[in-house]
Amino acid sequence: xxxxxxxYKDNSLKNNKDIQTLNLDKDILNxxxxxxxxxKEEIKNFLDVxxxxxxxxxxxxxxxxxxxxxxxxxxxxETVWVYGDYDVDGITSVSLCYLALSELGINxxxxxxxxxxxxxxxxxxIDHIKSEGGTxxxxxxxxxxxxxxxxxxxxxxxxxxxTDHHEINNGNPExxxxxxxxxxxxxxxxxxxxxxxxxxxxxxxxxxTLGKEEEVYKYLDIVAIGTVADIVPLLKENRIFVxxxxxxxxxxxxxxxxxxxxxIFEDHDIRKFNTYDIGFIIAPIFNAVGRxxxxxxxxxxxxxxxxxxxxxxxxxLLEKNSERKEIQEEIFQKAIExxxxxxxxxxxxxxxxxxxxxxxxxxIVASKILDRYYKPTIIMEIKPDEGIATASCRSIEGFNIIExxxxxxxxxxxxxxxxxxxxxxxxxxxxxxFSRKLNEYAENAMEDSTLIKPVxxxxxxxxYKISYDFLDKISLLEPFGFxxxxxxxxxxxxQFDGLRLIxxxxxxLMMNIIKNGxxxxxxxxxxxxxxxxxxxxxxxxxxxxxLKLETYKDRYQYKMYxxxxxxxxxxxxxxxxxxxxxxxxxxxxxxxxTRRKMESPKIRLxxxxxxxTVANDRTYLGTLDSQTEFxxxxxxxxxxxxxxxxxxDVIMKDENYNVHILIDKDYTxxxxxxxxxxLFKDIKNFLIKDFNYNCIQxxxxxxxxxxxxxxxxxxxxxxxxxxxxxxxxxxxxNINEKALLVTKENISKKTISSIxxxxxxxxxxxxxxxxxxxxxxxxxxxxxxxxxxxxxxxxNIDGFSNIVDDYEIPQxxxxxxxxxxxxxxxxxxxxxxxxxKIQVIKNLKTYLEVYSTKDILPYL
Length: 860
Hints:
Number of domains: 7
InterPro entries: DDH_dom (IPR001667), DHH_sf (IPR038763), DHHA1_dom (IPR003156), RecJ (IPR004610), RecJ_OB (IPR041122), SSDNA_exonuclease_RecJ (IPR051673)
GO molecular function, one term: nucleic acid binding
Domain DHHA1: 348-443
Organism: Fusobacterium ulcerans 12-1B
Domain DDH: 80-227
Helix content: 25-40%
Largest sheet: 6 strands, mixed
Strand content: 15-25%
């Protein structure tokens, strides 16, 4: 198998009651914590992806200056030149500015250099723009480092608005306006907009000034393409741009883009577009023409309004992309052959160069070589006629490639980049010395562990969580990408069958994954043909995987995409599995498929040995999926939980009706008892089953019901307060009277279902419970039937019976955190099944050590 090490992210949740009010699945919260989104407001803002949350564009420095100059351009009928880079970020930035400014009646022309001209502004291009009568240039995705070129433009009488997102290393150039999210003097705080996002903020400000703010959002599909392609963090504005832009893609108003979408996606009319579609299907098509020919052809597709021209342009772009793939694969295979034949894989850095390697794709090839060998990789195009080589570098975590090559800059002509990727040019005669010195440096700089690829797993996932409900909840975190990666889960101690090679070139693996008799079919592992033989010989495996919800024949399917497989290391922790099951957040949603038309929205669930059936009145609709059935059956068996179901939506498809069902825990209590004693017995069995009320609960209930006293109970929050409240609430509800709980604290759903809740006194109730009130709240209501529960030991009111909790903690109890319980022998938690809890309470009398959370306090 591959040389990997699995790293589980530290995602231990804090017991934050404020966050618990968000009612989010615990696994979803863990995923948010893994992304350093840990505070309530942060979480709410992250999940609320809305264009109204886009920051004020004028909070970027110099946007006001740019808008003022654009207003003059519009008034004076000047021509604006938009100057961009040849990658997808640059292409989309140019297209955005051209379309938006043209819509506002401004004359617009654009310039994108050929790859051979190099990145950024150049003198010749500026001279050309001057010769065409240009008086204003807007740079997009470039310009922040072009001090000389901008000074040259100024000398020619050309104003310059720089919109760029790259690092500011030598101060701002002397331009009319410099708009960059990385400026330290911005009021705008987010520093990681793409070039197209930066340009959009300027355009948005201009539209806002003209009273057309709402109209600017139609460009977000273009913004989304550039943002995803440039691999910037999908957070803050980027997250909004991409989320909204993906919605626009389905019905893009830009003719060329709309025709391209229809051409490459057969299901374009029903497809839910995602960042993968942009990053791996759409963006490479635009990138290819910039790599192999002229990026202006991609811009032409965005701005063209003639169907025939667009059709021809799409044909050309797709051909260029196919050519790019062929060139890339040819270079990749040659590089692999050289690495293997010359045993370059024994080196610390893989350096491969040949004449004829196309400079437009060597960066992609370097990434693919790195993925296979997990070593820093440099691919070079050697140019004997010029006596130089140009190189593209990709590096691994823990080895800063730009820092490394900086040590040997005397051997290079020029270089640049960052820790993970770089590029340089070098004289051919220096290549051998450079390679030797770089490898010597890398060998000393890297630990052995650095060369073991980390597989960063968000968290282990129980098999039953692979369900419609969980995948639907994961979609709250979309769009996924850099800075917000698609969650990576693990499943241990699995089996597999149906292993086979798939794909045109048999590069990928497909298999069925089996766990405890449950199966997920047709799981795919891309580019894994090299581990086929190793995998055949394994029996029990652990899988690291990503999940995706797809549809086939109008039914949802759970697709598992494998990222890594290893031989099983250890079996799962049974206590953890039980706790995870207990923590499932309700309601949960599932889907059944039926050809029968529903006569009414009422449905019921029926448990049997054959599964859980769903019926509508007397009409059988179907059975629940195996994962949902497992969850409900397990909770019913272990905790005596009852469930209710309701129809959320019915969607008519060609093949069937998709019935979306919400299933929740049912806290409905009913009793046919006639005597009060029998009613209390039914309530007690409903609330705490085979356990007894503890001493403070008994004393309080006796004071209220037997002695009929207004009562003050002084007790800690963890001693079973809500059980007292529920008992009183259910009693009054069952005798057709009303009780009210007055509190500002968070209360469980079970308590809410048993009693009225309010944050202040309301007339018309037969009994009142005040939880941790101020004494002044109570004085004027002393004539009512009242129970006060408080932690304040000094609380006292004349005429009330005072009861103080007095209990001892057995000496054989050891209090620990929930996480620590998973490695102990005799344990107690509210999350244990009922039978286990009863047995542990009995063990307290044997003086065996019992490890417990504070959950045990109500049982003492």
